[in-house]
Amino acid sequence: MWLPRPHIDSIQQIAARFPVGDATPEEPASSGSQPSNQQVHPASNGTNATPPRPGSDRPARSSGSSGTPNNNTSGAKPAQKRTTPNRPATTRPASRLQGVPAIQTSEREYSGDPQSPDQRTLQLKQLEQTVESCTRCPALASCRNKTVFGVGNPSPRFVFFGEAPGEEEDSVGQPFVGRAGELLTKMMQACTLQRDEVYILNTVKCRPPGNRNPEGDELSNCRSYYQQQFHLLRPEYIICLGAVSGQELLGTKLSVGRLRGTFHQYFASKVLVTYHPSYLLRNPAAKKAAWADLQYLMRDAGIAIPPR
Question: What does the pLDDT average to over 173-197?
Answer without folding.
Answer: 97
